[in-house]
Amino acid sequence: MRSTVRSLLAVLLCFFALTAAVPGAGAASPPRTNDFRGVNWADPRDNYADDEVVPSGLSTADDYATTYRKALGIVGEFRKELKANTIRLPINPSSVGTDWWRSYRAAIDASAASGFKVILSYWEADNAKDGRVDDPAAYAAMWDTVVQTYRRNPHVYFEPMNEPFGYSLNEWVSLTSSWITRHSDVPRGRIVISGTGYNDNVTGVGAAPELNGTLLSLHFYGFWASDTTEAAWLANLRPRIGSYGWRTIIDEAGSPMTIGLNYGNHEGNVYTSYLAALTQVAREQQMGIVYWPGLRTGDSYSMTTQVGPADLQVNSISGRDQLWWGWGLLRDEPTNSEPPAPPGEPLRGVASNRCVDVPGFSTSPGTALDLWDCNNGGNQSWNLTAANQLTVYADKCMTAGPSAVTIETCTGAADQVWQLNADQTVTSTAGCLTANGTENGSAVAVAACNGSPDQKWTRS
């Protein structure tokens, strides 16, 4: 009898061992990240800064109490207008352990007190931007302070670095595993490890045994390619995730929200097809999305605009609905009544390889145009209308002036009529669109056509 019992126990133990070894057999599915439904709250200058990072709507002049009150209002609007439950905030050594840190903590504290998950991520300075930690000693001291302050707060998550493109996979795994060892009292489930490159692939970090138990983060943007079909974007995105979607948060992804795109139309445009694919993958793999940005003043990708101290206005209902679809908040494919608007394309100078740009995302009539690094922003998206106007932001027209080319309210006047010609010139009745230089900030004017490279433009 005893030998029979022992044999039965051996069989049962063998069965349990086998089922444990087979994915999905006799075991619960792994947890997913789709409870991260969030937005980035960003500095208007971008989060690459060699001084304090100050998210839009906040000020270094404010004390803790004032910052807390402002943050409560903005975070409340993220919840009300976007149904968000997660905030991603930047940090750097100039913002931690400093005078601003005493106030900036209020934004973190207010978000956590509101029940939001808070992802804190390190950005390098704008005078480096080489994808590597700027100052290892300052970096370590910064994280020691942040972890000491928030390691016991279950709402706060730690992302050692944003977009570590300066490191090889082995270097990055070494740096992050050292970070984990240094902060061994932080649960691995609250550590978010960026993918390699521009956070654009998580398969390497996902396979690293040193990083087991951590979350992963992925970045993915429409300006990385020129595809105009959802199928092409799906083929682009899925290999970046591999089998690690269950532990990955897409903590940066975004599209222009201020230029009139209809995100209910998925095909035929880079950005609408891109966002359709991104949200489809997130929905089918139950991945979290932290949109870039929820609020960043002057950014055409910003999902909201601040119209009062504690009042945010959604910039694109169709874009918001598409994000909700990806979050799993809508049961059916999102639909909306927004009319489709031409997306526009950049005007890229042949001589400079830079684009005609509206400085600072200004919408003010009379703003003079210049050249700037091409970034697919709404302030570089020019639509040629049936009336031969070049419009930006859907309601401002490129206008040929005597001393500068500006944006003005569209009137149909002759100085707002342009021809895009086979010889790559862009002409008005006054002459050829001309770049007065090749560097960022070079003025754009109209001059007599002479066939020079500074009068040649491409639409790409």
UniProtKB/TrEMBL annotation:
<dbReference type="Pfam" id="PF00652">
    <property type="entry name" value="Ricin_B_lectin"/>
</dbReference>
<dbReference type="InterPro" id="IPR035992">
    <property type="entry name" value="Ricin_B-like_lectins"/>
</dbReference>
<dbReference type="InterPro" id="IPR000772">
    <property type="entry name" value="Ricin_B_lectin"/>
</dbReference>
<dbReference type="GO" id="GO:0004553">
    <property type="term" value="F:hydrolase activity, hydrolyzing O-glycosyl compounds"/>
</dbReference>
<feature type="signal peptide">
    <location>
        <begin position="1"/>
        <end position="27"/>
    </location>
</feature>
<keyword id="KW-0326">Glycosidase</keyword>
<keyword id="KW-0378">Hydrolase</keyword>
<dbReference type="GO" id="GO:0000272">
    <property type="term" value="P:polysaccharide catabolic process"/>
</dbReference>
<protein>
    <recommendedName>
        <fullName>Ricin B lectin domain-containing protein</fullName>
    </recommendedName>
</protein>
<comment type="similarity">
    <text>Belongs to the glycosyl hydrolase 5 (cellulase A) family.</text>
</comment>
<dbReference type="Pfam" id="PF00150">
    <property type="entry name" value="Cellulase"/>
</dbReference>
<dbReference type="InterPro" id="IPR001547">
    <property type="entry name" value="Glyco_hydro_5"/>
</dbReference>
<keyword id="KW-0732">Signal</keyword>
<feature type="domain" description="Ricin B lectin">
    <location>
        <begin position="342"/>
        <end position="460"/>
    </location>
</feature>
<dbReference type="InterPro" id="IPR017853">
    <property type="entry name" value="GH"/>
</dbReference>
